[in-house]
Amino acid sequence: MAKLTGPQKAATILLALGEEASSLVLKNLTPEELKLVGMNMTSIQGIKKEVSEEVLMELAEIFYQDGDIHIEGEHFFRNLLPSFLGKDGALSVMSSIEQEREKIPFKYVREIDARVLANFIRSEHPQTISIILVHLGYEKASEVLGLLPETLQFEVMSRIAHLDTVPPDLIREVDEVLEKELLSIGKESHQLLGGVQAIAEILNYCDRRTGENILQAMEDMDTDLAEKVRKLMFVFEDLVTVNDAGVRELLKEVRNEELTLALKTCSEELKSKFFKNLSQRAAQMLEEDLSVLGPVRLSEVESAQQNILNAARRLEKEGKIILAGREGGDTFV
To answer: Taking the CB of residue 325, how many other CB atoms lie within 10 A of it?
Structure first.
C-alpha cells in the first residue's frame, strides 16, 4: 500500500465510518481542517478493502496505546443528541440535565410545614440545625426557629453566626440524613452560608417576643455579637427612614385595619410619616380609628407590624422601595 498522509488517512477513516458517524466528527473540526480533509475526500474515487482495514487497524492501535479519551463529554453529547433526537429533542434533554445540575439544596424541605420540620429537627445537633435553617430562606427559617425550644434557639443562632463556609460533602451528608432534600452537586467551592447578616435577616421575620428573647440571651453570652445583629436588623420603627414615595407604595399593600393596629404603639414621628403620605380624607379616618381603638393585645399589634414589614421587604426585593437605615447597607448620595 502506498504511504498515505495524515489528511488522506482521516478521509479514508471517515468514508469507512459512514455519513452519520462522520458528521459527528466533522462538527468538531476547524474550517481549515474541514477544507483539508474535504480536499482529500473529494479526490477519492474508491478505496480497496485492505487499505481501509489497515488504516482502521492503525487507528485502533493508537487508541489502545493512548488509553485516555481526549474529548469533553458535554461537548460530545451536545453534538451527538441532534443526530437522533432532532434540534428540539436535544434542547429538551439538555435543559432537563441543566435543571438537575442546578437543584437547590434543601428545596423540598422548604415546602414542609414549619411545625413538622421543627419537630423533625429539634433532636438534631445544633450545628446540623443551623445548616438546615440557612438554606430555608429567612422567613421560613424564622418560623422554624420560633418553634424550637428557647434554649436551643440561641445555641442554633450562635452556630449560624460563626458559620463561614461549609464543605459540600457536609451539606450532602445532612441532605441524605433528611432523605427529603435535593442537593446541588457540581459546585466544588465551599458555600458562604451564615454570619451576622443571616441572623439579622432571620430575626427580622421572627415575632418580636422570639427575637427579643434570642437577642437577650445573645447579649448575656456575647455582647458584641448582639450589638452587631441589632445594627443590621430592620424593625418597624425603621420605616421612618423610607422616603415618601416608598411609604406611598407600601400603603397600597396595607389594609386600613392592619395599619391602625400597627400604629397603636409606634412613635409620633412614624405616625406622622404615614399620615402625610395619605390623602387628607384617609388621614382623618385613620386618626379617628386610632382615637377610638380600645385596648388590644400586644401580640396583635406586633403581628400587624410584622405583616407590614414583610410587605416592605417584598417591595424591596421587587425594587419598588428602599429600606435604608440599616448599618452596613448602601450609602445613597
So the answer is: 14
89: cell is 429533542
The torsion defined by the Cα of 143, 148, 151 and 157, in degrees rounded to 10, comes to -40
Neighbours of 39 (CB within 10 A): 11
Which residue, among 135, 197, 199, has the nearest Cα to 166 in the 3D structure? 135
Q: Within 10 Å of residue 332's Cβ, how many Cβ atoms?
A: 7
E strand or H helix at 159, and its extent? helix 150-161
Model confidence pTM above 0.70: no
Hey, what amino acid is at 150? E
- Report the C-alpha gap between 183 and 101 in whole angstroms: 9
Whole-angstrom distance, CA of residue 148 vs CA of residue 219 = 20
| 3-class state of residue 192 by DSSP | strand
Contacts of 241 (CB under 8 A, 6+ apart): 323, 324, 325
277 — pLDDT class (breaks 50, 70, 90): very high
* Contact assessment for residue 196 and residue 161, using Cβ atoms and an 8 Å cutoff: yes
Q: Grid coordinates standing for 199?
A: 441572623
**The three grid cell numbers given for residue 153, joined into one nine-digit string:** 434557639
Q: Which among 102, 144, 130, 101 is positioned nearest to 193, based on CA atoms? A: 130
Cell of 302: 406586633
Asked whether 37 and 10 are in contact (CB, 8 A), the reply is yes
Which residues are CB-neighbours of 23 under 8 A, at least 6 positions away? 83
Cα 131 from Cα 172, distance rounded (Å): 11
Q: Which helix (H) or strand (E) holds 165?
A: strand 165-166
Question: Using alpha carbons only, what angle is made at residue 136 by residues 135 and 142, rounded to the nearest 5 degrees?
Answer: 125
236: nearest Cα among 312, 152, 332, 315: 312
How many Å apart are CA 91 and CA 272, to the nearest integer?
Answer: 57
pLDDT in tens, 283-325: 899 888 888 888 888 888 888 888 898 888 888 878 888 775 4
With CA atoms as reference, report the closest residue to 202 among 265, 287, 275, 129.
Answer: 129
Spatial neighbors of 303 by CB under 8 A, at least 6 apart, are 207
